[in-house]
Amino acid sequence: MHISTADPPPTKKTMTSRCVITLQTMARKRGFKIQGDQDCAELLTMFHKHLLYRNDAQQRLLVLLLDTRKPKVTVAHTRHLQKWLEANPISQIVLVSVKPPTPTARDELHALHAQHYCYNQLLIDITEHALVPLHRQLSANETRDLLHKLNTPVDKLPRLLDSDPVCRFYNFPLGAVIAIERRNGAQQGQVYYRRVTT
User: Fold this and answer.
1) Domain range spanning residue 179?
2) In whole angstroms, how far apart are CA 5 and each of 2, 15, 119, 130?
């Protein structure tokens, strides 16, 4: 008889709790702190759970988790969210569901500048993986000094796609210059620079 020593697949409850831990880390790394409860009862009619964060610039990050029994984000979800956002302005939105959104819902999420993740994408914090280098967005002054030192325009820097998993995790804006520091191997300690593009 063969007994597997691998971890059993996560249950829906552990999957949700692991995702919440990763989402809390994501919010912290983006510069947000948990905000006290706000009246979001209207949102909970369509979404299973919500987390609300605020940063020092008074911007807000809203994280919405769909019930694991409702696998996809649909147009009904996006329209409900859009209606709620009219009275409650939010800087960043992250939606989490079991499966990718329907094509129309995906387009509406894009129009709302909302990010979508599947639960299985958030089971671990990818930025803590040993093979993922450190990423840091440069300030405007640091970018100016770097471009002067390299004697090159910003559009000549190598690209980092906005669809890159680490870029999505930090929500780096288009045009930002990112310093990437290798943590392992022969290139340990070397810094590379990339600009975020589509």
Assistant:
1) 127-197
2) 10, 19, 24, 23
Task: Give the SS3 label for residue 63.
Answer: strand
Long-range pairs for 173-176: beta carbons < 8 A, 24 or more residues apart: 174/198, 176/137, 176/138
pTM: 0.80
The Cα–Cα gap between 104 and 102 comes to: 6
Number of domains in the chain: 2
Q: What is the pLDDT, as a whole number, of residue 3?
A: 47
| Whether residues 51 and 119 fall in one domain | yes
Indicate whether 61 pLDDT > 70: yes
The answer to whether 82 and 113 are in contact (CB under 8 A) is: no
Closest CA to 30 of 54, 12, 7, 51: 54
Query: Would 2 be classed as within a structural domain?
Result: no
Longest dimension (CA), the chain: 66
Domain presence at residue 113: yes
What pLDDT score does 44 carry? 57
Residue 80 has pLDDT above 90, yes or no: no
| CATH number, domain with residue 134 | 3.90.940.20
Residue 34's domain is classified under what CATH number?
3.40.1340.10
113 and 64 within one domain: yes
What's the Cα-to-Cα distance from 130 to each of 52, 126, 141, 157, rounded to whole Å?
Answer: 29, 9, 30, 26
CA 27 to each of CA 48, 85, 180: distance values in angstroms, whole numbers, following the listed order:
19, 19, 20
